[in-house]
Design brief:
The protein has helices at residues 78-83, 109-119, 136-148, 185-195, 210-216, 218-227, 242-257, 277-283, 294-303, 322-329, 338-352, 358-372, 391-397, 415-427, and strands spanning 4-8, 14-15, 33-37, 72-75, 88-92, 95-96, 101-102, 128-132, 152-157, 165-166, 174-179, 201-203, 233-237, 266-272, 332-336, 382-386, 401-402, 407-409. The chain is an alpha/beta fold and 428 residues long.
Length: 428
């Protein structure tokens, strides 16, 4: 922790990290805290075996974990030609060994897990890390914690547990509890919040955890160091928007680095219709999220082809959140239908030769919208963040194992229910 300090984005106050600080203890208004690194110019380690730890200068880590992976960036040819773009760069996270991408969970959520878990110091070895997820984040944390013997409790909606597949049986240090069918990601978050009121459980922290954001920012670090400059546009589909916030923060560090230009990439993020709460708020230039009936939100979340994009309580409004990132970068939020996303996935497979997740299809569909609406021009330097892919090939090549829940909580569960069940689960 000696290579950085923390800053309250709202006030600018600089202070020390106490090991797992998620908020400024002196903060009076909702705000993210940001890591301010001592190393202003990023030195990328040459050893490919380090995975994303090649970017450790700008990561708040205390150790190197086993089996790390990293995003890769390359310049597109066929997709770029199809779209009429001369400078389209694809940052790919997933399974694509031919290009050097070896994320066995096939998702960029590994960048979060390897960074967050590497922030854990020895003083937390007896704590159980608690992670709420709509699917891919849970798979990534389960893999990393299993490989490294870190105690983990996952909270996931029951309808999403089909995403919890692995290429080998998991270590017993990883446990899963779920919220009943018909619930959504927000229900899983509430479940995790109750668990974290119990002694011995450590909240992962979500967007508030600097390690999560700075792990995700390795996508931007990969792109900028490959391209040699900050891109003009950054495209990504968002559920919480944490990845886009991370890209913005990395962009600010690159400006301070001084070797990659001084521009801010326009953040163009996208949501999957009909679940578009941030798109609706942004469309009204509202920092505050608009009212969203819980039952309607669950219904809309069930309708989208990319369920990982269904976060009802994203870090949008607080200082340093997505609203600020979009304003500062002169960005935008677009909305993409299931049909557009599926067509984009098909196009990527046909042109680039790899299957991608629906969330990545949403991102590509938003780029297609931007091209068709002349929002971007042929010579703009564009970074397309493909946040997951290669699952079809990986699953065909490997035997798979599924993680089963230790308990399923009904919709409307109470804090007392959680305390009783999780207490017994830990004892066992």
């Amino acid at each position: 922790m000696e290579n950085y300090k923390l800053m309250n984005v709202a006030t600018g106050r600089i202070f020390e990290d106490q090991g797992w600080t998620l908020d400024d203890p002196e903060g009076q208004t909702p705000s993210l805290v940001r890591a301010i690194y001592e190393q202003k110019q990023l030195k990328v380690a040459e050893d490919e075996r380090l995975g994303l730890y090649r970017f450790a200068d700008w990561m708040p880590i205390r150790r190197i974990l086993a089996n790390p992976s990293s995003p890769i960036t390359y310049k597109s040819e066929k997709l770029a030609r199809h779209l009429g773009l001369n400078n389209l760069y694809i940052t790919f996270s997933g399974w694509w060994p031919e290009r050097g991408a070896r994320m066995t969970t096939c998702s960029f959520k590994e960048t979060e897990a390897y960074s967050v878990c590497a922030r854990l110091g020895e003083e937390y070895k007896d704590q159980v890390l608690v992670v709420a997820s709509a699917g891919n984040t849970a798979r990534a944390f389960a893999k990393v914690c299993s490989d490294n013997g870190i105690k983990l409790l996952l909270c996931v909606p029951q309808d999403n547990i089909k995403a919890l597949w692995f290429d080998k049986p998991l270590n017993d240090c990883v446990k899963l509890i779920t919220t009943a069918s018909g619930s959504d990601y927000f229900d899983a978050i509430q479940l995790s919040n109750y668990v974290c009121e119990m002694k011995g459980f450590l909240p992962e922290g979500g967007a508030k955890n600097i390690a999560r954001r700075d792990g995700m920012s390795t996508t931007m670090m990969s792109a900028v160091t490959f391209i040699g400059q900050i891109p003009d546009y950054y495209f990504q589909a968002v559920g919480s928007g944490t990845g886009a916030i991370a890209a913005w923060e990395a962009n600010l560090r690159f400006i301070e680095d001084g070797r990659f230009g001084n521009k801010k990439a326009h953040l163009i993020v996208s949501q999957n219709k009909p679940f578009v709460p941030m798109y609706e708020a942004w469309g009204q230039d509202s920092r505050a999220m608009l009212p969203y009936d819980a039952d309607q939100a669950r219904h809309d979340a069930a309708e989208i082809c990319a369920p990982v994009l269904s976060n009802r309580k994203p870090p949008y409004s607080l200082a340093g959140g997505l609203y600020d990132a979009l304003k500062d970068s002169e960005g935008d939020i677009l909305a993409v239908s299931n049909e557009e996303a599926q067509a984009a996935k098909k196009l990527f497979l046909e042109t680039e030769g790899r299957d991608i997740y629906s969330a990545a299809g949403v991102a590509l569909a938003s780029l297609i919208q931007a091209v068709n609406n002349n929002k971007v021009s042929a010579n703009d330097i564009i970074m397309l963040n493909i946040t997951g892919g290669g699952e079809k090939e990986f699953q065909e090549e490997h035997q798979l194992y599924n993680l089963k829940p230790s308990h399923i909580f009904p919709i409307g569960f109470t804090k007392e229910d959680v305390f009783e069940v999780v207490g017994k689960l830990v004892k066992n």
